[in-house]
What does this fold into?
Amino acid sequence: MLGTRRQLGLITTKLVKPYKRQWIQAIPPSRRFVSNEAILDSQNNGEEDDATRTGVIQKGNQETLLYFGTVIPFKSYRWDIKQYLTRFWGRSEVAIKKRITDLCSNTPKSCTFDIKDIITVARDGGVFVKFVVPETTTVAEFNKNLTQYVAKNSKEGILNRIMSPTVHPVKGVPWIEDMRRYPSNQIEVEFEGPPLTQEDMYLLFRRYGELIDIKPATDANKKALISFKLTSSAINARHCITGLNLGGTSLHIQYVPVVHHNVIKDSIANHPRIAFPIIIAILASLAVLIFDPIRSFFIKEKITQRYSLNKLWRSSLFKSIIGFFSVTKDSLRKLVSTNEYHTSGSFALNQSAWGERLARVEELKLLLKENINSFIVVVGPKGTGKREIVFSHVLSDRPNVLHLDCDELIKARSESSLLKAVAHQVGYYPSFPWFNSLFTYVDLVTQGLTGQKTGLNESKEKQIKNMLFLTASTIRSICLSCYSNYLQELSCGGDTLPLKEEDFLQQYPDVKPVIVIDRFQASKKAGEANAFIYKELADWAGKLVTLNIAHVIYLTDDVGSLQVLSDVLPDNVFKVIPISDASFESAKSYVLSQFEESKVTEKFVKEVQDTIRPLGGRMSDLQAYVRRLNSGETPTGALEEMVDQTAEQLIQVYLNKGHNTFGPAEVWALIKVLNDRGSVKYKDLLLNPLFKSNGKQILTEMEKSELVCLTKTTGLITEIKAGKPLYEEVFKHLVANKDSFRELETNYLKSLITLETSKISKWEDELSKFPENSSYFKTRFKYLDEKISTSNNLIIDYEKKMKELTT
It folds into this structure.
């Protein structure tokens, strides 16, 4: 062992360039391979002894053996779907040889090497290639040049970019076997001789890929465990290092089998308590037998819209009828009108206007095609068009969609109205929310007579869980109905083995319903009476994704909800799709695309361009702007009206009566700062006396009211901006208007005077409690005197400013 460490320690600096000096000695056969030649000789009675049959690769003196990894997809398990994709690669010897030739060529037409033999390891997705080394070069130089060519050529072509093929010289004695030992990112190294240390193994294996962990051999276990980041790295290391003899130690490498867990089986085994008390179970069984099939039918209808008139409107027959009359109407319009409508140009402009969001639409569609864990969160400020993107552009052609609006559930003022709202949204009919009130009286009577409750009364949380549970069961039945159709089609098609239910859902993600949870504001509305509904929906949606029976999409303008989802669902990984305001060019293109070509004149475009900049790219504001233009207003007039209307709303809601947490003075102080700077740092805002005590709480409430937008880093507020682009123009309007500025600034100064007066009163009250002529409190007297003097000077300054405002 000491000799091995000394040998590796002396040549550490040479490991980066192994071809300049071979620190690994000429590889003699290890004990496992000592008898290879004897076995081959004893069986050489006319039988074929190629590597695929014997597992041994014979190599001459002027030959070199290299391993090409990820030439074709490898198999992670027996029924790996990637094995069916290899038909697009070509697995014949001619096709693989051509690909190896293309990878090794310095230029597409040059080929200065001689391939003697190719041994394909289909299970591992690699190829052993035996080259004849020219007499004019050494094996090390030949391997080095070939490695450089492959590294360069592997970046060319779509197939190479996807597969990222690699090449490594074979340093050990490879063992070619086709047993069911499927590759994984962990390999087990067995030492025949003194074991290597972690440092030695890191030097030896790091060149094949990034390592996650190394567990060295111990006295109890003579095998080391090495974990790679990628499975392909483990495959390369296994084929290039196994059989290597290093300092008297032979290394034998095998894959560590991957243990696949059945999520459904484990969840059932870990939660054995699934039975209710006998009496409640009987009553519940009666309800299930009678009402649950009916409720399940209506829930299924709510999701699939099978018997809905909306499905008739979307049918091809109805569309063809409507299309016929639309064409006739357009033809008559062209005959009687001289105006040509902006049809093709409008489509192009719409494409341009949606250019920034088309990428989001395609990303959402791609995520819905994933096999598992399709847990998506679409986040963006209010009015950015999240709902339109999801429903009009992503889910318009999906047959199975369930829309849940959290805002309607939160607004419910009673338990009965909440249960009705949940039942309506999921299609839970018939529902009897008044049963709970009846059972409450029954419990009171029973408790008065017997001293015990019947247990029939359920909380609203329990009833909502039951509704969601039945909804989940119905969603699963929808998936199973598609699976049954698949089995029927398969039974008529031949002898193909059917997929299991779990495999079917993974291979056909389109059959899974899409659950859209809209206006999810778990952080903003955490103080509401029905805020528990957020956690219930999050848990329920997480279980649907875990069971792989539905796709889930959250729509939220509350950034804090992401942290709530992370806390509630720590085991679920969700994808975040941000939706922001449109850029200036996209906003302009969107507005212009809404008008006829005859109206889009150069003057009109110039006016729109000048008004779009202060208006911003908020989709709701752009739509309101377009409606005003269609009603006959000029672009400048429409912008002025929107600014005046928004300013009036801000004054009425925030600058007159204030809020529970913040008042008009805090709002006006923030408006002035944002008007001057555009944005303000949180630390700078805390210098204002109105924000010193509870600035974070004030800003959080302002964000909930969509008055400001907070930028956070690691959960801490760093910067404050206006809630939407139009507010910036509104702030300028409020500050520039002399009448509004005079009134709001006067109220602001009065608030500051009141604040300083309260401070002085507190300090004077403290001074009155001290004994007179006490030298012991002299320092405290001086401190309070300075504080009172400072506040008094501030009051004088504020009163002076108020006087200037009135003159």
